[in-house]
Amino acid sequence: xxxxxxxxxxxxxxxxxxxxxxxxxxxxxxxxxxxxxxxxxxxxxxxxxxxxxxxxxxxxxxxxxxxxxxxxxxxxxxxxxxxxxxxxxxxxxxxxxxxxxxxxxxxxxxxxxxxxxxxxxxxxxxxxxxxxxxxxxxxxxxxxxxxxxxxxxxxxxxxxxxxxxxxxxxxxxxxxxxxxxxxxxxxxxxxxxxxxxxxxxxxxxxxxxxxxxxxxxxxxxxxxxxxxxxxxxxxxxxxxx
Amino acid sequence: xxxxxxxxxxxxxxxxxxxxxxxxxxxxxxxxxxxxxxxxxxxxxxxxxxxxxxxxxxxxxxxxxxxxxxxxxxxxxxxxxxxxxxxxxxxxxxxxxxxxxxxxxxxxxxxxxxxxxxxxxxxxxxxxxxxxxxxxxxxxxxxxxxxxxxxxxxxxxxxxxxxxxxxxxxxxxxxxxxxxxxxxxxxxxxxxxxxxxxxxxxxxxxxxxxxxxxxxxxxxxxxxxxxxxxxxxxxxxxxxx
Amino acid sequence: xxxxxxxxxxxxxxxxxxxxxxxxxxxxxxxxxxxxxxxxxxxxxxxxxxxxxxxxxxxxxxxxxxxxxxxxxxxxxxxxxxxxxxxxxxxxxxxxxxxxxxxxxxxxxxxxxxxxxxxxxxxxxxxxxxxxxxxxxxxxxxxxxxxxxxxxxxxxxxxxxxxxxxxxxxxxxxxxxxxxxxxxxxxxxxxxxxxxxxxxxxxxxxxxxxxxxxxxxxxxxxxxxxxxxxxxxxxxxxxxx
Amino acid sequence: xxxxxxxxxxxxxxxxxxxxxxxxxxxxxxxxxxxxxxxxxxxxxxxxxxxxxxxxxxxxxxxxxxxxxxxxxxxxxxxxxxxxxxxxxxxxxxxxxxxxxxxxxxxxxxxxxxxxxxxxxxxxxxxxxxxxxxxxxxxxxxxxxxxxxxxxxxxxxxxxxxxxxxxxxxxxxxxxxxxxxxxxxxxxxxxxxxxxxxxxxxxxxxxxxxxxxxxxxxxxxxxxxxxxxxxxxxxxxxxxx
Amino acid sequence: xxxxxxxxxxxxxxxxxxxxxxxxxxxxxxxxxxxxxxxxxxxxxxxxxxxxxxxxxxxxxxxxxxxxxxxxxxxxxxxxxxxxxxxxxxxxxxxxxxxxxxxxxxxxxxxxxxxxxxxxxxxxxxxxxxxxxxxxxxxxxxxxxxxxxxxxxxxxxxxxxxxxxxxxxxxxxxxxxxxxxxxxxxxxxxxxxxxxxxxxxxxxxxxxxxxxxxxxxxxxxxxxxxxxxxxxxxxxxxxxx
Amino acid sequence: xxxxxxxxxxxxxxxxxxxxxxxxxxxxxxxxxxxxxxxxxxxxxxxxxxxxxxxxxxxxxxxxxxxxxxxxxxxxxxxxxxxxxxxxxxxxxxxxxxxxxxxxxxxxxxxxxxxxxxxxxxxxxxxxxxxxxxxxxxxxxxxxxxxxxxxxxxxxxxxxxxxxxxxxxxxxxxxxxxxxxxxxxxxxxxxxxxxxxxxxxxxxxxxxxxxxxxxxxxxxxxxxxxxxxxxxxxxxxxxxx
Lengths: 241, 241, 241, 241, 241, 241
Hints:
Oligomer: homohexamer
Shape of chain A: globular
CATH superfamily of chain A: LmbE-like
Helix content of chain A: 25-40%
Radius of gyration of chain A: 18 Å
Structural class of chain A: alpha/beta
Largest interface: A-E, 36 and 36 residues
Number of strands of chain A: 8
Strand content of chain A: 15-25%
Order of helices and strands of chain A: EHEHEHEHEEHHEE
Mean pLDDT of chain A: 96
């Protein structure tokens, strides 16, 4: 299969998440010719939009529109499609219709990989809910009796979990570091679209630099910027590397 | 209490589960005179019936009927009663009425043990849901204020978790191996009722042989076929063994 | 901030819990001038009222009233306010309205700490549900877009988990022991209000004595009665102690 | 095999350990006719003999003799043999000769069970060392090439770990509670031989009472005094109980 | 670097280990042109040679010679070099000279990967000691000040842990499955060289078949025989797969 | 006790460790009037001195002297005493004499806290050995029979573990963040003494900034630079904070 026909699926609770946590991997795979699709479950309208809410008389619809615009621009910049589920945030509540749609997306996209949140996060209830939904959709997508179609071919892809804000508190143990040197400028530009979270631009730049140095240490080949993931499920190899 | 008045309860997400994972223990206790009851939460109609769905024009009702028939025959062969909850699979969704019925079953049966699924399974969301429901029913069954009846005696029994398909990925750590040598032929015959999952017959035969060898190694007394469980809750002993 | 303007929030599944598990800390902080508020999610009417249900013809309303009265008297004795959510027990089911009310309480109280249940309890499904609800309310209370109010100041406080009945089975690892010597008599008197659970008075007196001895061993300063907690989230220090 | 020909082996770092942690199980099995042998690795002369060292001019030999006498009397009272290895304490350092002797004891005794310390203890380095030595001896005792003797039959017995002083800090999770009601008086009398550790008599009486209540809760059959253990290695069952 | 100049290092406690646990990966990489080197720390002369010791009057030297011959033939068959350290078994005791030699081997070989034992094994003390030694040598090999040589280039390779005999008891969680279909016949022939452990031939054939089926399930691409490993240390990727 | 009479003990495997991992806490407590003592177990002469070894003909003695000088200057700058044990590095091997000296230091210093390495580090065998030695000395220092002296008062202080280089790989979970804003400049200047490890200056500056932001998030009070620790052993509180 040519890279150009490969695809990847990203399931993100809020717009910030796919930028801070997976912006590098998204841009990198887009550059390699993958079709990337982000499912952005909410606009982060209540919990990640402090500045918007400081404006007197601001309405929920305005805040959502503003965050949606940012998210769309960030996805464009990274080279990915984006679909919004408008599930709300703080708390994010998924519905059967959202699950159904996410299963359909799995069937349509046949992704080579799924990126989503870490399984635990004591600071945030939306992140584990996004991960739970992504896992459930991936599992049901394998069931022959779900919208039966004998011509359908779907093989559940590997899942890689995003690095959360405070990894140790979330029992996150990275086992994959993606070298994002060649797309770093794009990732950084995507940060700058998220004007409301300016305090995090430098934070996540430092995370990228430190994961880059760790990546170099773990391979002996220098790299500058990294993005850490935790791979679920065993991988099959034909050669150790 | 004579063995003949003892009972055991098995809470299984799909028909295959009680066969692959607990068929030996069910047959063994039935042979000892226990009344065994299987609560089969779904027919596995969507997720474990690939072959059925390959038939053009097959209907959900047909698939369920086919799997129900198989499950009934397997239960008969193993010497157990079976009650179906028809909760659906992929995903299995339990309802308050199901919980209520399972509490009643606990009260009626007063089981000496409960067998159910492992608490985690990243490959399957129905298995942990079955375990959750079984645990919840067992706990509520102890509440004096649930359908109050001062004459009721119910003591929450020990719970033993089934071995999942990929034990290490499910954080399953067996601490009990049941010697099923004397009922192995029955368990194997029950496998053969599950025509749609023929690829698993040899797989679970190998699991039984390897657990048997481990059982022998852990006791010094040879055995051939074993079934592994993880016991929850401490046991009380009057003599080490 | 003078201690007299400080507050603490306790989220308890059943009346017994705040007495056995946090009675010392409540009385101690009340004595220091804190305003203490207990949110008691249920009356423990079904699962911790065995004796009440032995009376022929007793009604649910009677049992609830009896337990409410006990809980109110225990809170009074310990120096705390109490608010009942009447969420039911065995099982405790929280609703969106309860979550909303608990968020409001967080905003009104601005607690310096939250005390609630351990995250896991294989013997009881109400305890983890109470902890989950308390955590969710604390997290949402931080969202600027939840009932937006630019004048609101709310900083999510540290959370300390109660010692469960069988700590090791609940993966409870205490990292804080509160010295409750100066309020022990109050805590013990609160035990005695819980007439229906007399078998636990001595049990929890022994727990307090043994935690007290452990506290002394961990500091080198003798103490007699202790209450153990597990602190979630890192603490910030300016001096080790 | 008649109970009277069965044996049990206890590997204890210091004299106090076999009394506080296993005195009930020792007395219980002795009463059932088991031959019980305690290997007491040190006299606890440096770390458990604070009172002895307060006497001006006391010599190491005196302290050892005093503790040895206590340990011997406690073993007699509980119905067990005792062998001292004099490995020192704080720190306990085992030698190849001690390992060799402990292997021989395994061969001679052919124990039905081994009791020893928990695997971790951040408060004490002698306890894990005792457990390590006991495990190593048990493993080597199985090697056909160790002092080869084709007539030797030795099957490695199950291992049960003692409850440490602060169980949660030692990652100790009890899965076995031994009902020691019928030998409680003996265990308590053995406490009273350990005059130097009088502060622990009541502590471990409370531990026994609370483990007893937990044992009752886990089985539904009341008991008063319990001793908790963590069983290593799976057990083989022919019937759930 | 052409595959033909790549190398791999295997550190095995006993001869059986590299055959049962890594025979497939060794043969597979040998076939790809890797130079493979096995460091076999002992001959398994005491603990894995039960049959040899049943012969009256057999000497340690004879047993060692017999096992050495088997190990050499198995290595030849798999396409690997083998070096024996004669460290003894049950217990395996490494010396500073062995550590030094293993560091030199790291420097000479510059392996692309190291295969060794799981970190824990409550059934066997030699296995974790082999893993400890392999890890220590790999770490020290990176120190510029160990036998300083400014021209030396050594980059610590990834480490993959063997599947132990009872994986769950050893806290082994496989995250890599190697597809060994094309070398299975070689691996099976190597089993048959180990005449003394004939009872394990079928056991490890079943392990290979079940890991093969799991490998297929985790990728969607069928395979028949697998070998499971646990990779330590994060991997660096430029594309998810 | 006035702060000026308080003391703290730091047990560091190599010179870099006390600078990168604890430089802030050392300077902060020194500024508060504590007497701080660093026990530096090795000079890091083999494993952390790559640049020194690039000089043709350099001798071990020269490298040690160079690193000792750096370490002394860094300690001076931070306001601490330093004592070198010259235990070697890669591997660090402690001796009975070193243990004895460290016990004496515990007795002399009577520290209010001990800082040392994380308990696990798969990248480094010297770090866990330093932590093991520090723990053992602290434990033995409590034994009345070790160099008996009835006038001695020693109470084992709390232990705080350093943040390792790759925290998640070392199972390090920080529960304490020290605000080091007021001594940051000193810590940074100490970095610059370690000329050979210039690549780490920015790395550990980023660690300090990110731990600072996490500290702010966990308390609601902004801070800029933090140092993370994992506290072992429960703390005793009289008021939650």
